[in-house]
Every structure is written in C-alpha cells, then in structure tokens.
Design goal:
Strand order of the largest sheet: 1-2
Shape: globular
Largest sheet: 2 strands, antiparallel
Length: 329
C-alpha cells in the first residue's frame, strides 16, 4: 500500500488520539461528576467534528461516498443508544459513583475503538473474499431486529456468567470497595482489581456483542473500509457524552426499541437483496432517519398522553437484577 493511500488513515488516527488526550488529560484530569451542560458541549464538539469530516468526504471523494458516510454514521449512532441503556443498568446495579463513571467509559470507549477496528477489518476481508457471507450478516441483522421486538426486559450482564470476568478473577482478587478511580490496587503486596475494572470488563464484552450487529449494518451501505471505520469511530467517540446527555431522557422513548428493530431489519433485508436490489444511498439514509423520527415522535406523543403509565412500563421493561460483583466465589 502506497504512502498516498495511508496518509488519510494516519491523519484520522492522529486526530482521534488527540481528542482522547484532550478529554482525559485536560478536561477530566480530576475525577468529577459530569454535568449535563458539560456533556452537551462535548457532544456538540464531536458532532461538529463529524459533520466537518463528512463535508471533507463529500469534497474529496464525491457525493456517493459522502452520503454513504453519513448513512453509516446515522446507523451506528442510532444503534449506540442501546449501549447507553446497558451503561445505565450497569452503573445503577454496581452503584458506581457518578465521579468515576467518566473514567470507566473513557477506557471502555478506547477498548471499543480497538475492537471495532479489528472487527471491521475482519468483516471486510470476509465480504471481499467470500461474498456469500453478506447473506449471513443480513440474516443475522434481521434476527437481531426480531429479538429487539420479542425481548421484554433488559437485564444487567451477569458477572458470574461473563467469561472475561471469570478469567480475570483467576489471576486477581476483587476489592470489596471502590478505590477512587483506580482499576487496580496493591494491598499487602497483592495486586487486586477493583469493582471499576469488573464494570469495565462487562462494558467491553457487551460492546463486542453490539459491534457484531452494527458493523455488518454499515457494510450494507458501503464496502469501503475507510468509510466504515471512520463513520463507526466518530459515532463511538460521541457515545460517552451521549450517555451523560441522554441518561435522564431515555426512559421516555417508549418506541425506541421498535425503531431500532425496524432499522436492523431494513439494513438486513438490503444486504440479502444486494445482488438484485440497488437502493440509492440517499434513499437508505432517508428511510433510517424517517424510522428514528417516527419512533421518537410516537414516544413523545405517548408520554404526553400517559406520563404515569410510561414511567411504570419503563420500570418493568428495564428491570435491574443486581449481580454480586464483590463476592470472590
């Protein structure tokens, strides 16, 4: 691969690294509870950067790639909302102090960037060398959409059933209390992991599951690895601040899961029919944005008509079953 084709990748990775350094070393050097205003500002920064990057894609690579990038970004951003639900359940179930939540999500997002880069490359190789794999991806997305509709409850990932947590416990005992924002501490010469690391492992493992569904969805739009990777990463960069912004509002989006199920089913069907049906990228983008708009409008309308019923239904649908993270079992 020539230098000319490598420089956009290098420039993008340098930009992402710079944003992460500014976030960790300048804005959140000291642990503190992230306010909604602070989260809104950072969300605005990330979205503005994504829009500027998308404009650059339009200018440098043309309309088709520009629309494909925007569509991929919207798909990933919309599917990321379900990650936010998991963050809410995990932090609530593990009673993670608000001041430490940002640090956990920072390392979680960093791990997600690395994992998704590997998955995107792997999926690209599969699709380019084994074209029939695209039908498997499409069927998987439709199946995932069906599960979104049939699952009535969202459970906290089980500590005891998580293989990564069990593996970590074989090497490190877990402290009984939080130790500031540390992931590891040393007591009496013994290196121990803190409950924050347990939560981080669960966040990483559940993000891996979400990525398996979202990455094929973007490949339904384009098979260009640079567009898939950059649109995916921009969406992930905004996920942490999205959590702090939306944590107080998600409970009212009653039809969110139905909307996400419709998006997954649409892109899955598009993948399966890719050899016989070629939709204009603008049509795909319009369909996805339309689904999100309808789900949001319907949720707002229902909430206004049934404010009390909405709160009770949300509490029943998103039941929290507290695990026991500090037992040494």
């Amino acid at each position: 691969m020539e230098f000319v084709s490598l420089w956009p990748w290098a420039a993008f990775l340098l930009f992402v690294g710079s944003m992460l350094v500014v976030d960790l070393k300048l804005l959140h050097r000291d642990a503190h509870e992230v306010s909604r205003k602070e989260a809104l500002i950072w969300t605005g920064v990330v979205i503005t950067a994504a829009i500027i990057f998308n404009i650059g894609v339009f200018i440098v690579r043309g309309t088709d790639d520009g629309v494909a990038w925007a569509t991929g970004y919207v798909i990933e951003q919309s599917l990321s909302v379900d990650n936010v639900f998991v963050f809410l359940l995990l932090f609530g179930s593990f009673a993670v102090p608000a001041a430490y939540q940002h640090r956990v999500l920072f390392w979680g997002i960093l791990g997600a960037l690395i994992m998704r880069g590997i998955l995107i490359a792997f999926a690209g190789v599969l699709i380019n060398t084994l074209h029939w794999v695209i039908y498997i991806f499409g069927a998987f997305l439709i199946y995932t959409g069906f599960k979104f509709l049939t699952e009535k409850e969202t459970h906290v990932p089980s500590v005891e059933d998580n293989r990564l947590v069990r593996l970590a416990r074989r090497f490190f005992p877990v402290t009984e209390t939080y130790e500031g924002q540390n992931l590891f501490v040393r007591r009496s010469g013994i290196l121990m992991m803190t409950p924050l690391l347990v939560v981080l492992i669960l966040i990483e493992s559940t993000d891996l599951v979400f990525a398996v569904g979202s990455i094929p969805a973007i490949y339904a739009v384009t098979d260009d690895p640079f567009i898939v990777f950059t649109s995916n990463i921009f969406a992930i960069l905004g996920l942490r601040s999205l959590y702090f912004v939306m944590s107080g509002y998600l409970a009212n989006l009653r039809y969110l899961k139905q909307g996400l199920a419709a998006i997954l089913t649409f892109v899955g069907a598009k993948m399966i029919l890719s050899d016989v049906l070629h939709l204009n990228p603008l049509v795909s983008l319009a369909v996805i944005v339309g689904i999100l708009a309808i789900a949001t409008a319907a949720s707002i309308s229902y909430t206004k008509r049934n404010p009390t019923a909405t709160q009770m239904e949300t509490a029943m649908e998103y039941q929290v079953h507290p695990p026991h993270p500090f037992s040494q079992g």
